[in-house]
Amino acid sequence: MKQIRMENVHFSYPDGTVALRSFDLSIEEGERVAMIGQNGAGKTTAVKLMNGLVKPTGGNVFIQDWNTKDYTTATLSRKVGYVFQNPDDQIFHSEVQSEIAFGPRNLGWNDKEIQEHVRYAANLTGIKEIMMENPYDLPYSTRKFVTIASVLAMNPDIIVMDEPTAGQDAVGLQQIGFILDELQNKGKTVITITHDMEFVVRHFNRVIAMAQGEKIADGDIQSIFSDAIIMERSRLKPPFYASLAKDLGVEGSVLTKEELWKHLRIESR
Ligand SMILES: Nc1ncnc2c1ncn2[C@@H]1O[C@H](COP(=O)(O)OP(=O)(O)OP(=O)(O)O)[C@@H](O)[C@H]1O
Question: How far is the CA of 127 from the centre of ligand 1 (A)?
Fold first, then answer.
């Protein structure tokens, strides 16, 4: 089933800034999609349109069979969980436990259901030991996991994460990879905005590249990262092994260490 359909979407902010133009997008159930592109390309605006935080000024956004124009953000958040770019824009409780329980409580679940979902989300995000802490006493990277847990506890079909890797160390990155795999196993649809191309190579197959309010490419990682024009227009640093392969004069698509080794072995024969 189609989870997200954006048809000829335009969006202008009240000050007249045009953030999105003629934007079309279709995402199926269970897909895992990375959105990449230069700063100000319109990525955050595109995902805010998905959960109704903003409504299109032209065109339509459908979440499953709901047109977002007909629903409030609160109602849409039952289907689309949105993890904000900055955790401080999302967190408003003084205890991790109550922050995570807020969404499930609002959904009207009983205490047992709330507890089960809070426990599940805390385990999955690796924060079960800090449930009684004040989120504002925690480092930025941990606050980000609190916001991810708050969204996962509501068990939405679609999860949107805005820059989950920002500020994460190797352990944090591994945890995010683990969360993505678990969500995929559960058949969830995941859209992630990121500037981290190594993260994209490791965890995504489909990539949407954006520049100046437009979608400039939608395809698999090989086709996007091997297209010099797309990379230049989206002003992104190519993945490390792609750059290294280029410097070494290796022909063909290389994104990982294993692929580079394969090419070098073939060339040395
Ligand atoms: N509240 C706002 N009012 C006016 N213009 C805005 C507002 N929020 C974003 N913009 C502008 O809309 C455009 C798209 O911004 P958006 O945040 O969607 O881009 P982005 O690709 O997510 O950028 P980044 O990678 O820096 O987060 C930019 O020109 C930005 O300056």
Answer: 31
